[in-house]
Write a structure and sequence with these properties.
Length: 327
Amino acid sequence: MTADGSSGGPPDVAAQQASPQRLETQRLAPEQWAAVVVNYRSGSMLTDCVEALVADTSAGISEIVVVDNGSEDGSVDALRAHHPGVTVLRPGANLGYARAANLGIAATRAPIVAVFNPDAHLEPGSAVSVLHAFRADIEVAVVGPKITNPDGSVYPSARSAPGAGVALGHAVLGSVAPRNRFTVAYRQLDADPLASRDVDWVSGAALWFRRDALDAVGGWDERFFLFLEDVDVCRSIGASGRRIRYEPAARVVHVVGTSRAARPAHSIALHHLAAYRYAEKWWTGPKRAALPVAAGFLAARAGVAAGFAVVRARRLHHASDSAPGRP
């Protein structure tokens, strides 16, 4: 979709026709950023997400591309009814988040490209703050906004890279003692959420890239189907010598877990699988000898967490069925 609302090409494009070739980064101009939305069964939130992107005219978005991972909930049809000019890529299957993000990015041209979850809502005036952060320092390659939950509370979206010790402490204590020192360090809970700063990574719910920096690391690692792909891509870019920036003047409201709420146990399994793949990729030297132990720990933790999730879901279903006024 172009800045004036017209289509920059056919509005519905088969994924097989999307060129994998990315164009060279141009000079950063006022209307040179694009957005990719990766959709999976998000219902009306997809249309809400795109409408928020269109409504933020502070920096003149030039392209919007939606990649639909095989949704069958009518979310794309509803979007097309409201915004027929938006380009939609339909690969016909669930490619996973990283692969879908790469597909959408390849279909855009702008030197700055954002990737959004469909349940992320961009607040007006945010885009210009992001572009200012890029213009202020050429070494800044990724910018993440301040993310809030629908109730207004701050979601800790700017975080530290999870070293083995901190990751283990957070995995064991995070759900039972949220203010333990490992979780505080990992989620940077003591940092001022209103202060701009360099961080190790920012949440993939909404983040902006310099295209050249993303291209230099080969894009998102498609071995990550869901979860930790944001940690990984930020770490790769950071390792290349570029910087990751948290910019709270840009604001996004995020409804966490919309598309995966129907299958919590499956999501837990995917999360733990991603954690192992992350360790396998980034653990070097003597730490690699601990990979079998990590695999066993993650498998056990995933089993326990999935069991609790199933019990909780059944209780909620029973409570709903027993509510007054239900037939």
